[in-house]
From TrEMBL:
Signal peptide: none
Any one GO molecular-function label of the UniProt entry: S-(hydroxymethyl)glutathione dehydrogenase [NAD(P)+] activity
Keyword annotations from UniProtKB, A to Z: Metal-binding, Zinc
Domain Alcohol dehydrogenase-like C-terminal residue range list: 156-272
Biological-process GO terms, alphabetical: formaldehyde catabolic process
Full protein name: Alcohol dehydrogenase-like C-terminal domain-containing protein
Length: 328
């Protein structure tokens, strides 16, 4: 490729053959097959994926079929229906998972790029870590000395904890049914833990925060948990941020009186992150060792073992499993 004069020119116009992990029946194991990839069209870029990973959204859509479709109120677009192929990017239709690495190998036409941003490497927006770090910083704007409750300690919830810690929250409460998450969560700034299975349905968060958390984050995608988060935030100014995607079609019901008294509830896609300006900011935080991104990596596998990565997620034993396209 020629990158002179701030331009990137394609050197090939041919289809290529590569490996892909394919699932033709929802919920069935993926099969590694060779596929043909067309050359890029106008404004498209063809990339070679070096590694990627999975998140729970991958598991959700892997299982999704016509019989357990999202609510009729949801759009039937790429985020709401089972696709018969999971390529090497795996999470390609809902945002690509964190830690993925790519090399640009072909473009369809001459593309003008800024001199300080050569198009020889690509990094796509994370659906997990960027959603959590961004939600604490960009959406809620967690304040120093405030209290935070996080419902769900997967990678999104832990990223919220990381962001809340950096914003100076005085108390960060993690809520999860899996007790194995608690030791991990400490590394991301969680100070207190609640297992709903052991509380008997009591309003524990209000007791731990003297009336309610200043900020609550729902990171699972259950309407009932969204309601719990809203009821756990402080009356008068408490804010609840919904990060989980409700895939069962269950409506969310909240008390209008609490809204009138000042409680806020809001949703967020990707944590309000604007890639062009915010990803460099978070990258600098990571390089300065202020962001603990490495702590999310719990496993590393080769592409041929991609089904094992799904198993690890289903078992609750993985945050981010790095899947290398070549053996490492």
């Amino acid at each position: 490729m020629d990158q002179s004069n701030g331009k990137l020119e394609s050197t090939t116009r041919n289809a290529i053959r590569c490996k892909a992990a394919i699932c033709r029946i929802a919920g069935e194991p993926l099969i590694i097959e060779e596929i043909e990839v067309d050359p890029p069209q106008a404004w498209e870029v063809r990339i070679k994926i070096l590694c990627t990973s999975l998140c729970h959204s991958d598991v959700t859509f892997w299982k999704l079929n016509a019989n357990n479709m999202i609510s009729n109120d949801m759009p039937r677009d790429g985020t709401s229906r089972f696709r018969d192929m999971k390529g090497e990017a795996v999470h390609h239709f809902f945002g690509v998972s964190s830690f993925a690495q790519y090399t640009v190998v072909d473009v369809a036409q001459v593309v003008k790029i800024s001199p300080d941003l050569p198009l020889d490497k690509a990094c796509l927006l994370s659906c997990g870590v960027s959603t959590g770090v961004g939600a604490a910083w960009k959406v809620a704007e967690v304040e120093e000395g405030s209290t935070v409750a996080i419902f769900g300690l997967g990678s999104v919830g832990l990223a919220v904890a990381e962001g809340a810690k950096l914003r100076g929250a005085s108390k960060i409460i993690g809520v999860d049914l899996n007790p194995k998450k608690f030791d991990i969560a400490k590394k991301f700034g969680v100070t207190d833990f609640v297992n709903p299975a052991t509380t008997g349905g009591k309003p524990v968060i209000k007791g731990l925060t003297d009336g309610g958390a200043d900020y609550c984050f729902e990171c699972i995608g259950l309407a009932s948990l969204m309601q719990d988060a809203f009821s756990s935030c402080r009356e008068g100014w408490g804010q609840t941020v919904i990060l989980g995607v409700e895939l069962h079609g269950t409506p969310l019901s909240v008390n209008c009186y609490e809204i009138m008294r000042g409680k806020i509830i809001t949703g967020s896609m990707f944590g309000g992150v604007k890639p062009k300006t915010d990803i460099p900011f978070f990258a600098r935080k990571y390089l300065d060792k202020e962001l603990n991104l490495d702590g999310f990596i719990t496993h590393k596998l080769s592409f041929k073992d991609i089904n094992k990565a799904f198993d690890l997620l289903l078992e609750g034993n993985s945050l981010r499993c790095i899947i290398w396209m070549d053996d490492h």
